[in-house]
Amino acid sequence: MEQAKSSAKWKTELLDWLKSFALIGGLTAFIYVFVMAPYVVQGRSMESTLHDRERVIVNKAIYYLKEPKPGDIVIIHPDASGDNWIKRVIAVAGDTVEAKNDQVYINGQPLSEEYLTNNKLQASAAGVVLTEDFAPITIPEGSVFVMGDNRNNSMDSRVIGPVKLDHVVGRAEAVYWPLTDIRLPK
To answer: What domain range is 84 assigned to?
Structure first.
């Protein structure tokens, strides 16, 4: 009798643990798929804002509530390759974007890009322009125009065209690795 109670208690406790692990696993999967996820920066296209191998937290839920805005640093899924890229939103639907004489223009107005100060100085010292000229492009509805901050080393909307909103995975919220450089990317 005592052995039967002990066996039943053990089974109940095991079942409780399994339910707890299933709940934790399900909650973790939900958060990872729909809310937040880690991302490893691969390459130098966002230097000097983000560096190769840094890790960022990506807010996947933000764009369920609103659309990306210029200046947002986003993770995009540009094609069927399965790769994710990290870029900066430069223009949104309805905007006309162009570059001439190393200056980006949105709707005919020069875009202020303080985050490029170091990159422009380095390009100038090397005798090159940071942003090559490109003809005006009007961004269609449901799309954004993205560029890397390291313009001479970035595959972005200048090559692949505007990115559809359903290919925007989320917004980079914080750098969490390396621990010595935790920060909010700007």
So the answer is: 41-181
